[in-house]
Design goal:
The chain is mainly α and 237 residues long. It has helices spanning 13-22, 25-37, 39-43, 60-72, 77-81, 99-106, 110-125, 127-132, 145-157, 165-174, 179-186, 222-228, 231-234. The protein contains 13 helices and no strands.
């Protein structure tokens, strides 16, 4: 079993990194303060700091390391991110560039990341959705699964696993699929009016689990239900 925080000061930076990479979610979260305190040592490893992680995955430990470097050791990021402006692979079946989303999530600019996600969902739904400014639930099934997975992976990776479609779907399943129980759990209003404007939404990691991304519910739960049950996302739960 991994040791708790009491033993972490004696760990070498390599040992700390290995424990953070291989530990359970609970163990990783207990190491977050130590990772923050030893950011300079971790950054000194350069690309080796991320060598054990898979850029095709959604491991939030890698995303958190990058966010810590963004805040405390930004000089190391260019060598880690390269010309792509994003460490995680972000494929698209329709040619969408997800580097702006990675930049916003890396910088914990969650409101901008949410707006980007909304635009992509409209783009995936088609020209009619882009023109009207919102998506119908009936436009969700034909959406490209690869792009929905990319959106979900990036939100997962840069939120300590707390945000994204998969996080929302898991919470809903734990609540027996009852949306009226999900809304207060994730911090959304229940009166049919959800807004991203001041006072109504929390754009930080202090938000409740599943709080982001915002899915417009002005027309009831059918859009969110269709999205969370898209075949490509069902396989990620």
């Amino acid at each position: 079993m991994l040791s708790g925080l009491s033993s972490t000061p004696s760990l070498t930076v390599e040992q700390l990194l290995e424990r953070f990479r291989t530990g359970s979610a609970r163990q990783r979260r207990s190491l977050i303060p130590t990772v923050e305190k030893r950011a300079e040592e971790l950054a000194s490893l350069g690309s080796a700091a991320l060598a054990g992680f898979d850029p095709k995955g959604d491991d939030w430990a890698a995303g958190w390391l990058l966010q810590v470097f963004q805040r405390q050791q930004p000089q190391v990021l260019p060598s880690l991110l390269g010309a792509s402006n994003g460490w995680f692979d972000a494929p698209s079946a329709v040619g969408i560039d997800y580097s702006p989303l990675q930049r916003d999530l890396l910088a914990e600019q969650f409101e901008e990341a949410d707006r980007f996600t909304s635009r992509v969902l409209r783009q995936l739904a088609g020209p009619d959705a882009e023109q009207r400014g919102y998506v119908y639930f009936s436009e969700v099934p034909p959406m490209q699964g690869l792009d929905l997975i990319t959106l979900d992976r990036l939100w997962t990776a840069y939120s300590q696993g707390r945000f994204g479609f998969t996080a929302q779907a898991k919470l809903l399943a734990a609540l027996d699929g009852r949306y009226e129980r999900l809304w207060p759990r994730i911090g959304w209003k229940q009166d049919g009016v959800w807004t991203r404007y001041p006072g109504a939404f929390t754009w930080s990691l202090t938000a409740p689990e599943g709080h982001m991304p915002l899915i417009n519910q002005l027309r009831g739960v059918r859009l969110m239900d269709a999205l969370l049950n898209h075949p490509s996302l069902e396989g990620r739960r």
